[in-house]
Design goal:
407 residues, alpha+beta, 4 domains, six-stranded antiparallel sheet, five-stranded antiparallel sheet, 20 strands, extended
Amino acid sequence: MYRLVRDQPEQVLELEWKGVHPKLFFRGSYTFVGLPLIALAVAGIVTIARGEPNFGLLLALGPASFFILIPWASGLWMGYHHRIVFEKALTLSSKGPCLLLCWTRMIPFAEIRSLKLEVEEPKQIRLCLTYEPGRRLRGRTLQLQVEGLDRRDEAMDLVFRIGRIVEWQAYRVLPNDPRAMTVELFPSGEGTPIPAAAGPADYSKPHEVFHPAPTTIPSFDLDRLKGVTRFEVKAWEPGRWVHLAERPRTGPEWVGALIMGSLAALTVYLVLPKADWIWAPFAVACALGAAWGVYATRRREVELDWSAGMARFRRGRGVRTAPLGDIAEIVLRGRMSLEPSGGNPKYPQPSRPVYFCEMQAILPGADEVLLRTTTSREQDSPYLPTLAAAVELARALNIPWRWEPYR
């Protein structure tokens, strides 16, 4: 559990965690490094006792013991430390029982592209940030459980303190299950302004209660859902039986598979014998393209059976079964892509964004797609019908749900 060790409003916020390192693999691997050194030290002592000291061995053991054994012993005595510091840059540092774990990472605030916090019950906070150190976006998730922070209004107070230090001015509570709350911060005033600081944090005293705006859930309309989904809704009775089947793709995928397969066959039977296998890579590429075309046309089916307590996910000939109790949550993810605007090629127009949604079941090992909508140029068209369906399904399974905005 983290402890708030330093808090200067709008300037510095430092959290520290001290204890046994959670990843025992590092401690165990380091022990395997230390044990051979101990064995070599014993061997050196034995050579001295016999009157035949091995000075090369002793010279090698001296620096090795100083740089490895002494930090290891002091680390075991003092424990493992992990610090998260917000001060001009997000600094993540770890210090523990071996040198391999002593590292520091600084992420300048200018590189942070998105900052999102997920608050769950009991007050477990996940800090999800996306930053861009170069040309490539990177993501990191930090699990925070702060000492004395046991109410949602206190969690929001910590969120606001982080936002003020990063100098981001606004926040927005995303639609989510009442048992959890997702807050996204913004650099400018796109949402609700972050309130001013009232002094250093003291979570032993009651705070002003934070009341997030209630999430408006549209009423479920099966006909409207059928109009936007690429799946065929064969049965929709959450709590009893749900059967969804993706409409098979018989257009460009099959045509591409047929063309690529024909090219591969013609190359193998007509070209390769005369060209001395120089066209073999082309034949392999065509065969792989045909295989991918066939793979893309596989039909996906989803069956949720409450009487049997099982979920079946079928993709082509492959079938995966899982107990309904293994589904941790229902996530509705917004997707965005660009499509050409068309028009005169001599006067190209900028591409326009199109939107679609995916409903996914979070399962151990790999998530499963339950539903996917068609694309639309309006964000609400695929979002509202699938949001109502996701909430209804999550309530029937008695699990939380959440919405991830278009990206």
